Structure formats: structure tokens, C-alpha cells
Amino acid sequence: MELEFSGEVREWRGPAPYHFVRVPEDEAEQIQETAAAVTYGWGMVPVTVAIGDTTWTTSLWPKDGSYLVPLKDTVRRAEGIELGMVVGVRLRIEV
After folding, report:
1. Computed over its alpha carbons, how large is the radius of gyration of the chain?
2. pLDDT-derived band of residue 95, with 50, 70 and 90 as boundaries?
3. What gap in Å lies between CA 9 and CA 35, rounded to an integer?
4. Is the alpha carbon torsion for 56, 72, 27, 63 positive or negative?
5. What is the enclosing helix (H) or strand (E) of 72?
6. Tell me: the pLDDT tens digits for 15-50?
7. For residues 83 and 35, what is the distance between their CA atoms, to the nearest angstrom?
8. C-alpha atoms less than 13 angstroms from C-alpha of 7 in its C-beta half-sphere
9. SS3 assignment, position 70
10. Which of 12, 9, 28 has its CA nearest to residue 79?
11. Does residue 41 contact residue 91 with C-beta atoms inside 8 Å?
């Protein structure tokens, strides 16, 4: 499954700050249809993500009926991504 969307970069301040892009509702519904087949626990969904020229593997975090795409610091630096920016995201889920 491959999805493309845009979203705002947000910060979650926990014990360590994390940066995320929230998956829009329509795409989240598509992911939920296949999540049970690929999740490895706690609803985490393994994905390959691409933003700009940078591609990496991570897992979507389930949150409030949607998912969050975590943005690694190395990705944010490589792509010049800052808090509040809207970025284009490409996701691939191996089913």
C-alpha cells in the first residue's frame, strides 16, 4: 500500500521531544483496514517513509483514531524541516 499526503510538523514534549506529522483522516482509515495484518504490537504499523530526497523506515504511532509519522532529527536536518512547516509525505506499507 502506498499513500501520499501533506501535513504540519508538530512537536510532542515528553521525556524527550519528538516531531511528528499526523496522517489525515482518509489515509488513516485506509491504514486501519490493513493495520491488523502488519502491526507488531500496541497498534504500531511498520512503514517506509519518504520526504523530499530522504527515505527511512519507522513505525506509525496510533493516536486518537489516526496515526503519527515520527520524524527523525537526521531527516529534519537533511530536508531543512522545521516545526510548523507543511511537508509532503510518502508512505509505503508492506502487506
Report:
1. 12
2. confident
3. 23
4. positive
5. none
6. 777 899 999 999 999 999 999 899 988 889 999 999
7. 28
8. 26
9. strand
10. 9
11. no
Q: CA-CA distance, 8 to 35, in Å (whole number)?
A: 23
Buried b (16+ CB within 10 A) or exposed e, 43-80: ebbebebbbeebeeebbbbbeeebbbbbbeeebbeeee
SS3 (DSSP) at 46: strand
Residue 77, phi-psi category: left (phi > 0), alpha (psi -120 to 50), beta (remainder): alpha
**Cα(40)–Cα(71) distance, rounded to whole angstroms?**
20
Residue 56 per-residue DSSP state: E
Confidence of residue 84 (pLDDT cuts 50, 70, 90): very high
Choose among 58, 42, 44, 43: nearest CA to 91: 58
